[in-house]
Structures are given as C-alpha cells and as structure tokens.
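Chapter review: from sequence to fold.
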Amino acid sequence: MESNNKQIWYKEARSIKYFLHRQLWHLLSLLILVPITWFFVAPSLGGSSWLGIKDITWFWLAVGVPIVHQVIVWIVFRLQLGWARLSKIFGDLDILVWGLFFLPLLIGRAITLIGLANANSNTLEFPDRIAIIIAIILIVPALYTFWSVFRYFGLARALGGDHFRISFREMPLVKKGIFKWNSNSMYSFAFLLLWAIALLLDSKAALSVAAFQHTYIWVHYFCTEKPDMEMIYGKKE
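The token string follows.
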C-alpha cells in the first residue's frame, strides 16, 4: 500500500501553501454570497414552519450544509493530493469511506432546500403554470446529467476518484451522454434540479438558496477542483 500511496500523492501538493491555495477566495466568496442571499430571503421569512422547524432554521440549514460539504471536500481532496491521507488510513476502502461522508451531505443539500421551500411556500408570486413549465424545462437536463453520470462517468469517479486512484487519472475524458455537449455538466446542469424544486414548491427563499448553491459550487470548482485537476492532468503533458 505504501508504494501505491507514493504514486497517488504529488510532491508539489505537499505543503500548507498548496493546501490553502485559493481558499482565501473561497472565504471571500462566502462573505459576499451569504449576505446577498440573506438580503433576498429575509423579507419572505415570516416565522412559518415545516415538520416543526421554523423557516429561518431551514434557511440556515440549506446554506450551512453546502458550506460544510464543500469545506470537507476541499480538506479531503487536498489531504489526498498531498499526503494520500485517506488511502493510508483506510486502504482500498478509501473511496467507500469517502462516499459515506460525501453522499449524505450531497443529498442533504436537496433535503434542506425542500424543507425551506415547504416552510416558505406560496411566496414566489409567480404564475403556477409558468413555474411548472420552467421547472420541467430545468428538470430534463438535470435528470439527464444524473443518468449520464451513472451510465458513463461512474459514481466512484464522480466522487473525485482521481484523487484516490491512478487508474482514474489514466481514463480518457467522457464524451458520451450530456458530457458530449458539456464537459462540466455536473456543475452546469445537475444543480438546475434545485431551481426546479423551488419553483414547484413556490418558494422565494428556496429559489434564492438554489441560486446560492449553484453559484457556490462554481466557487468550489475554481478554488479547489480546477487547481487540483491542473496538477493531476498536467502531469501527462
């Protein structure tokens, strides 16, 4: 296992400097995005609740879960890239263990948004028929993206498998399904499902948080994933 770990990590990533690379921009983005989101959401919050949880609590859960999720992804990805830390601790179970952390947080993003939308329903002031039509238009590429991920990309690779296995780094780019049209479809289209949820449940607060989550995932891309990909795949050039 030790010899395999030496192949996984990169010497250039084995420093606090790279571990924190672009994370100041990550923090600054949050300091801008969260207040802006609150500005749009606050007027629509009126103390209503769903499942006994108040709308303001659902709001902070719907904002907080994505933040926790993306901070954990940053820490794990950088620990893997520089030190293969999860691989050294869990061996061949590293991706499985990672998935047990990653997937509940990913699902939690949608669940907390649904909770907010139900607690804040009937606040969008948007014609129902038009909202439904727009929601369906958004759902189609989102579902096609999920199908393409499972059919052509694979769950392990989608979890960031190239931080864990050399074999994933050697695979060719996926050019089938929705990836034929957009190589970054998971960020571009999958998050449209959150917008659709907000529209179908007629929630202004949920629509604002959907915008926050969709914008914030691109912060992750530019601050964490893109530099990592440049290091990993730049090695082939």
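Two observations follow directly from the output. Residues 2-234 form one domain. The chain has one domain: 2-234.
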